[in-house]
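Lab notebook, bench 4. Continuing the backlog of folding jobs that were queued last week. Each job is logged with the same field layout so the records can be merged later without manual cleanup. Today's entry covers uridine nucleosidase, a 322-residue chain. Filled in by technician R.K.

JOB TYPE: sequence-to-structure
TARGET: uridine nucleosidase
LENGTH: 322
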Amino acid sequence: MGEVEKKKIIIDTDPGIDDAMAIFVALGSPEVEVIALTTIFGNVYTSLATKNALHLLEVAERTDIPVVEGSHMTIMKATKLRIADFVHGKDGLGNQNFPQPKGKCIEQLAPEFLVEQAKLHPGNITIVALGPLTNIALAIQLDPEFSKNIGQIVLLGGAFSVNGNVNPAAEANIFGDPEAADIVFTSGADILAVGINVTHQVVFTDNDRKKLEESEGKLAKYLCKILGLYFSYHREAYHTKGVYLHDPTALLAAINPSLLTYTEGVVRVQTTGITRGMTLFDNTLKKYGEITEWTDKPKVKVAVTVDSPAIVEIVLDRLINS
Ligand SMILES: [Ca+2]
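JOB STATUS: finished
OUTPUT FIELD FOLLOWS
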């Protein structure tokens, strides 16, 4: 049998404890080739996200993978950003005081890089978007062909028919840049959205953490150090003894879409008022009596159910064997 071509992925990320986990799972997955990490604000500011991305690649001994810095502000040029350092630590990686990375990001900016890669490999790049969608919206604005050239955008974002995690309306990645999210959702690109209605079903327990601890996996051991803070946050915020695997679930949806089920329809993002950042999905079953803001907009795929035990098992397997 000939070798199956690996899926080329770019991970757009704001590391971030569960970002670190997703990146390591990707690096341990033979099905994909990680061609770059692009960075964005969210869990930390963009410059720290870049530092952390470089650091994580050094930990994984994969400094052959370039890091490309993304936008420092929202698409509306807001610099007052919502940063989730109370979830991931001041350093984004569980307050471990890791040494500064030796490497540097490449000169290019993330939106240009995304446009260029999509042109270079038309239809063959999957972006796994694990933070606010600013870089991707900027790429869409830069190049009208981008949404056609890009293969797929698998994004972690939204709260479909459930409460958000920033407030009852909004999920964190969408809330980070709602205008950018609305541009992405209505761009016509092949989009698969994995929201917290799905990722809140994927719980990584204390027992799972023990399995990492007891393993010989190098990246598993590293993650055990940074997971402590993430566990305490979940205990306090959700009264759970485990943590949600948001980013790894989205990553695995890109690798093996059959781990989840999906529905299709138009998604719009609320950009004003108390529900700013809310994702509103229209499943198109109803014929409305008038033209709406959803009418004639392109459909996207939205994840509905997930095989949680399978996701946790794959995450453990890839990390224990790292
Ligand atoms: Ca993230």
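OBSERVATION: The pocket of calcium ion is lined by residues 13-14, 16, 19, 42-43, 130-131, 247 (CB under 6 Å).
SIGNED: R.K.
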